[in-house]
Amino acid sequence: MSPKPSTRERILLASLELFNAQGERSVTTNHIAAHLEISPGNLYYHFRNKQAIIAELFDRYERNVDGFLQLPEGRALTIDDKTGYLEALLSAMWDYRFVHRDLEHLLSGDDQLAERYRWFARRHLLSAQKIYQGFVDAGILQMTPPQVEALAVNAWIIMTSWVPFLCTVDGSEDKRMDRNMLRRGIFQLLTLEEGFVTDAARPGVSSLLAQLHAPLING
């Protein structure tokens, strides 16, 4: 039997749930306290304000991404690694989708968070370039260094814009944001690479694209 989560942990989990469901700007500390059936004073004992909660949740998101967006040690990349990277990243985006949906608002209201995000973005643009270069070195992609850099930037744009894009498709995040739509996001990233796939890797990449495709518009 797992131990009961602490009040601090319950506050973080409830905040994440509410931010994802309703949008960060629609949720106050009073809403969070009421959701947990605790007093606002109890919440403020653990977090001085909503920005402190957001900062802690972003820290968790950042550590999640830092943990998997790395090259494997001691071996070359494979096509299977493509699925691993992209599913892990888009799952992290799903779990913390409020960050992407409300990013501009979050960063405009918190200078420290904005600075953290700038370093986060720079660090992982470089990580993405290293990973794409790893696929070049493994004979899966054939690209020049400028093309590797451009692909990393384009992939970052899609990844960071995917949640807001889905919210604009029909105006209903809950309706659009499901695992099929995550798979579609992975599919979109892989289509960026189609023109650079080597002949030897093409059957495997084509099979992966077929597995990951999901209709963007249903009905």
From TrEMBL:
Tree of life domain: Bacteria
Keyword Amino-acid biosynthesis on entry: no
Keyword annotations: DNA-binding
DNA-binding region: 28-47
GO molecular function: DNA-binding transcription factor activity; transcription cis-regulatory region binding
Domain HTH tetR-type stretches: 5-65
The keyword rRNA processing appears for this protein: no
Pfam families found in the cross-reference section: TetR, TetR_N
The protein, known as: Transcriptional regulator, TetR family
Organism of origin: Stutzerimonas xanthomarina DSM 18231
